[in-house]
Each structure stands twice: as C-alpha cells, then as structure tokens.
Design brief:
The protein is α+β, with helices and mostly antiparallel strands and 194 residues long. The protein has one domain: Aminopeptidase, CATH 3.40.630.30. Helix content is 31%, strand content 32%. Strands 1-2-3-4-5-7-6 form a 7-stranded mixed beta sheet, sandwiched between helices. It is globular.
Length: 194
C-alpha cells in the first residue's frame, strides 16, 4: 500500500487534474472510444472545466477531491468529483424525480494507470463517502462504460451494484453503452445495528 492521502482540490491542481484525466482516458478507454476522439481531447479545455468546478462549484455539496502519493516528492495521482444527482445522472426517459434528493452522483473517479493498485482509488472513494454522509446523502450513483471492467470491478468490490438503468453515449456516431451503479451510503445502511 502506498503512502498517500486525499484532500480537497485547490486551484493550483486543475492543470494536473486535466492531465490525469486525459492520460487516464487515453489509456483506459482506448478500446472503448474512437481513437481520434481521445487524440483530439484538449487538455486546456479540460483544465478550464476543472478550474470552474474547483473555484466556483454550483453548491456546497459539489466536491472535487485529489489523491496524493507521498515519496521524496508528492504527486497528484487521481481525483474524484461528485455532486447532487441531476439530469446527467438520469437514464433516458427517467422522470426528473426518479433518484430523489438524497442521491449523490459521482461524475469522475480516476487514478492515473501508472499509480493504480496502490490504494488511491479506495482512499478517494472512502473520503467521498464520508463527505456524502456529512451532507446527508443516503445513496450514490455512478455511470460506467459497460466495457470498463476495471471501474466496474473496483466499484462492485466496494458494494456497488447495477440498478438496472442503462444508456448509450453517442461519441462521434458511435454508441457506447453505459450502466448505472448504485450503493447505499447512509450510516444506517452501513451499520444496521445503530
């Protein structure tokens, strides 16, 4: 297990978050998404999006966390982003109130592949769950690509399960199927003896 920790993202982290996202997508999704789409992703554009998410989140329960590996130097190695479930968390034709107010949506949970299998993803997820509980969320959802076995295995090992919802993203005229996973995060659900 690596020495590392999780903390809230800072404005000075956004360029590295964008670099990690781009590197991770290009490695993890190279067989799922068209190559030219991955090749044409603009790191500066991603950094602008992350800058807005870190500096001016839409609300107090929208969070971006980063994982840091400690060695002679410290390295940003991954990140997680989440916020209250909104229209992006819904399946096609699902009613707007289908998920309810107590549901948080994970929009990103990525660890750069070269830093994988060192506990960073687990630390990001555990820190996120702690914050979700503090904010009063009782369930979480996340969309994953059906072909992304690593993410599915990671989340299901942590207790997540498909909730039956699916969708397909249109990526440059290629439909890429996704499924939605969910998990209970309330302290009552985690410890039924309370």
């Amino acid at each position: 297990m690596a020495l590392g920790f999780v903390r809230p993202a800072r404005p000075e982290d956004v360029a590295e978050i964008a670099r990690i996202q781009l590197a991770t997508w290009r490695a993890a999704y190279r067989r799922l998404l068209p190559r030219h789409v991955l090749d044409n992703l603009d790191e500066a554009w991603l950094a602008q999006r992350w800058d807005a998410a870190v500096r001016q989140p839409p609300g107090d329960t929208h969070r971006v966390l980063v994982a840091v590996e400690q060695a002679e130097q410290s390295y940003l190695v991954g990140f997680a982003a989440s916020g209250p479930a909104d229209a992006e968390a819904l399946a096609p034709n699902e009613p707007a109130d289908a998920l309810g107010a107590g549901v948080v949506a994970v929009t990103d949970l990525l660890v750069e592949p070269r830093w994988g299998r060192r506990g960073h993803g687990s630390r990001l997820l555990a820190a996120s769950v702690d914050l979700w509980r503090e904010s009063g969320f009782d369930h979480a959802v996340a969309w994953v690509f059906e072909g992304d076995q690593a993410s599915r295995k990671f989340l299901t090992a942590a207790g997540w399960a498909p909730d039956g919802a699916g969708r397909a993203l249109d990526v440059d005229d290629m439909l890429v199927p996704q499924l939605r996973l969910h998990v209970a995060v309330s302290t009552e659900a985690a410890d039924p003896t309370d």
